[in-house]
Amino acid sequence: MKRTGKYISVCLCAVMIASMFMCGGCQKQEKTKITKKKQIELWHYWDIPGNQQHLEELVESV
């Protein structure tokens, strides 16, 4: 009787470990998204302080 109980517990432990590995292997792999940095070109009116401040606010909000 002792051998049967030990055999069952060893088999149960092996099944539990195998199911743990199977559940871990079924997860989807996360794909990393590569975001491109935006490039802006400033053409006009950069010498006006109000425009400089407005641009700084826009850049900080992103």
Please characterize this protein's 3D structure.
This protein has 62 residues and is an all-alpha fold. Helices cover 60% and strands 0% of the residues. The longest helix has 24 residues, at 2-25. The protein is rod-shaped. The termini are far apart.
Topology:
Elements: H1 2-25, H2 49-61
Keywords: Signal
Protein name: Carbohydrate ABC transporter substrate-binding protein
Signal peptide: 1-28
Secondary-structure element order, N to C? HH
Helix content: 55-70%
Largest sheet: none
End-to-end distance, in Å? 70 Å
On the 0 to 100 scale, the average pLDDT is 78
Rg result:
31 Å
Anisotropy-based shape: rod-shaped
Strand fraction equals: under 5%
Number of separate strands: 0
Put simply, the count of helices is 2
Given helix and strand content, the structural type is mainly alpha
The stretches of 5 or more residues where confidence is low (pLDDT under 50) are none
Supply the number of structural domains: 1
Quick summary:
The chain is an all-alpha fold. The protein is built from two helices and no strands.
Question: How would you describe this structure in keywords?
Answer:
signal
